[in-house]
Specification:
The protein is an alpha/beta fold and about 280 residues long. The chain is built from nine helices and 15 strands. The chain folds into three domains: about 90 residues, D-Maltodextrin-Binding Protein, domain 2, CATH 3.40.190.10; about 70 residues, D-Maltodextrin-Binding Protein, domain 2, CATH 3.40.190; about 80 residues, ACT domain (Alpha-Beta Plaits, 2-Layer Sandwich), CATH 3.30.70.260. Helix 2 packs parallel to helix 3. It is globular.
Length: about 280
């Protein structure tokens, strides 16, 4: 049976590129790609078993963690990260008009943030308007001479727009990590383990004690990030990525979780998985 793979649509988004690459790496045979309207809808599709897998962005090198993804992983604790890729992100300014005519710029909030300096220097009077995806932004500027969208160059052929400027990223090395979410867990070739926890108490040294265990087991943290619990001010969830170099690390990770768990009100293991960089050139 063909696997259904959900991603943030419509066609032409970076998420669609990631969906095709991750599905190939996961050896899905002739997958059926399902574009969703909104990132949370993508995650719900796998949480409620409407699809076999889901592709979502989880981290950007400029803007940090993708909060919708992090919050959903905490909420739907039976979802696993099966694989991850890091894609270079190069944004283009697309429109039917000329750059001198542009008074409104539309795109996903992350894309707008990643190009904010360029916009302030080159289109200082333009209003920025957030959309659900870069593809939605492109669709909304079609036929307009005063609106432009920020998105992938691949959208030019799909939507027939003009390239007004490229690349317009504030940071040349801008990249995004996309993950393949599944109900299954695969350890083959894992180089990252991801988990999150909330502490039993907010006492001095409570977080340090948990982090010390990570150090004692010899793990290097490649990411640590906090998100509000949404229950009360000052209560946080800690998201951690640690590097995995061999099978013994996977076994040590299991021991680490047992050590940390008594300190936690709740701990969620997102899985051990392979993350790799992809060159689109």
């Amino acid at each position: 049976m063909r696997k259904q793979v959900a991603y943030l649509g419509p066609e032409g988004t970076y998420a669609e590129k990631a969906a095709h690459i991750l599905s190939k790496l996961a050896n899905f045979e002739s997958p059926l790609f399902v574009p969703c309207n909104g990132l949370y809808s993508v995650i719900k599709s796998i949480a409620y078993k409407n699809c076999d897998a889901a592709i979502v962005p989880i981290e950007n090198s400029v803007e940090g963690g993708v909060t919708t993804t992090l919050d959903a992983l905490w909420k739907f604790s039976d979802i696993n990260i099966q694989k991850a890729i890091v894609l270079p992100i190069k944004h283009a300014l697309l429109s039917h008009g000329e750059i001198t005519e542009i008074s409104e710029v539309l795109s996903h909030p992350q894309a707008l943030a990643q190009c904010s300096e360029w916009l302030s220097e080159n289109l200082p009077e333009a209003i920025t308007l957030p959309t659900k995806s870069t593809s939605e932004a492109v669709n909304m500027v079609k036929g307009s001479s005063f609106r432009a969208a920020i998105g992938s160059k691949s959208l030019i052929k799909i939507e027939g727009l003009n390239e007004l400027a490229y690349p317009i990223n504030d940071v040349p090395g801008n990249c995004t990590r996309f993950v393949l979410l599944s109900k299954e867990s695969i350890l083959d070739g894992a180089n990252i383990a991801s988990f999150a926890f909330s502490l039993l108490s907010n006492n001095p040294g409570a977080l340090l004690e948990a982090l010390n265990y990570i150090s004692e087991f010899g793990f290097n943290m490649s990411k640590i990030e906090s998100r509000p619990s949404k229950r009360e001010l000052g209560e946080y969830i800690i998201f951690v990525d640690i590097e995995i170099t061999n099978l013994s690390n996977v076994e040590a990770f299991e021991k680490l979780k047992k050590k940390i768990r008594p300190l936690c009100e709740h701990l969620v293991d997102f899985g051990c998985y392979l993350s790799e960089k992809i060159n689109l050139d």
